[in-house]
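Pasting as-is:
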Amino acid sequence: QARFLAHLVFLKKQWGIEQNFLVESANNFPSDCGLASSASSFAALTLAAGQMFQQIKPQSWGADLRTLSSLSRQGSGSSCRSLYTPWALWAAEYAEPVEVPYKKFLHQVIIVEAGKKEVSSSEAHKWVAQSSLFPGRIERAEKRLKEFIHSLRAQQWQKSFEITWAEFWDMHALFATCAPPFMYMTPGSQKVLEEILHFWKTQGDGPLVTMDAGANVHFMWREDQKEMAQAQEKHWQQHFRVISS
């Protein structure tokens, strides 16, 4: 709460606002388990405050999403992307929208672990630099990013899957090889990953699959894969909570 309200104080200073405000904020999904709850909440606070402050004390620079993205980043770095939909790229001081042919996805999160992470994302960022696999990590990520955007624009779905699959495994390998080593993946995570990989192999199609710094697994389906997505949701609801959007 202190960090959250400190961001509001920061935003007030940017606009020169002196009034006090009642802030109410909530998530409809678990917090502190690798689902970017801070990104969503800080983006929401920045957007709401920016719109309100513009009415109280209009500024020539305060209404565009690029500016709000830059301001949101001061509270939570990854929140700068959460102001855009469906795709955004965090380049430097702010994020910008990325144009691809897919305008809407069916998003599923398989909640393997809803509890608070033992190692926070901030701590993980510090520790992974000690991994023997860290040299070249930035270059690998940037290379995959370019390939991923190209594959989306070319509508090469299987290639997009292969890139996201390799990327999150690369990231989680850093966690397991840093000092001290730790793991976010659980037996539940691996069960989901093994089954969806088998699904891809047997069907020749499937969702994009990725993981953040946590145990939970994300599926992203094309709109024309709705029946596949519904079947997978029904299946995984027998084992875990599934959040769909």
